[in-house]
Design a protein that fits this description.
By secondary structure, the chain is α+β, with helices and mostly antiparallel strands. Helices cover 60% and strands 10% of the residues. The chain is built from eleven helices and seven strands. The strands form two sheets. Strands 3-2-1-7 form a four-stranded mixed beta sheet. The longest helix has 27 residues. The chain is elongated and about 70 Å long. The termini are far apart.
């Protein structure tokens, strides 16, 4: 990122904002406005007022929004820009979520092992705004997890195909840890273990998955999962 990025907004794993490296002290209203603009992009004031203060009358919500914008202009100057009745984050704001979204929508074949794979492995199970339960945040949390796990699994699959089994194993573990009951992630992990000749670890992984699936959902694994280890069982 260029040096002109003077404001950093962190939404993955926690909420944090800083200006020139110094943490910004903000209240929940300012935090939610910045988060909403980072997640939803530029939006009209009426939209933001209704999103952030759904229980209030329109006039009251718009008043709360004006106060929040004024407070932010004092605590994080330059963070917001206004075009007519639309509010947006300025280009001076760097958002970690945007980096992740840019990564997961790109074809995994274009990922760099040194940069992109390393970033994923250094940020396992990215979680958007943990502890926030606003409806619009919860919806985005679920969407982001799906995008993240789909991309990591696709990258692990590509690594398996290309014979980079150790990297595939690391990525498959990351996907499995993010979505433990997801069958596709379990299959990738078992295949990676078998690719490295770790049959005992593959069996242990499968048994752990079956136990978790029965405990959490009262279900048994599909035939697809059981067939993964059928050649090993026959031997």
């Amino acid at each position: 990122m260029g040096e002109w990025r003077t404001i950093t907004l962190r939404l993955l794993g926690c909420w944090d904002a800083s200006v020139h490296g110094a943490r910004v002290q903000t209240g929940s209203r300012q935090q939610r406005l910045l988060a909403a603009l980072a997640i939803r992009g530029p939006r009209p004031r009426h939209y933001l007022a209704g999103l952030l203060w759904p229980e209030c009358s329109e006039d009251h919500a718009l008043g709360s929004l004006r106060t929040t914008v004024f407070t932010l202009s004092r605590r994080a100057p330059g963070a917001l820009v206004c075009h007519g009745g639309t509010l947006a984050l300025s280009e001076a704001v760097e958002v970690d979520l945007h980096h992740l979204l840019e990564l997961v929508v790109r074809p995994v074949a274009s990922w760099s092992a040194e940069r992109d794979d390393a970033w994923v492995l250094a940020h396992p199970g990215v979680e958007l705004l943990p502890g926030w339960y606003d409806d619009w945040v919860v919806d985005e949390q679920a969407r982001l997890q799906d995008l993240y796990v789909n991309a990591v699994e696709a990258r692990a699959e590509l690594c398996l195909v290309q014979g980079d089994v150790h990297r595939a194993l690391a990525l498959a573990r990351t996907a499995r840890d993010t979505a433990p009951l997801r069958e596709s992630g379990l299959c990738l992990l078992v295949r990676a273990h078998l690719g490295l000749g770790n049959e005992a670890e593959a069996w242990r992984t499968l048994r752990s998955y079956c136990s978790d699936l029965a405990r959490e959902l009262g279900e048994q694994p599909s035939d697809r999962v059981r067939e993964l280890l059928e050649p090993v069982r026959r031997r």
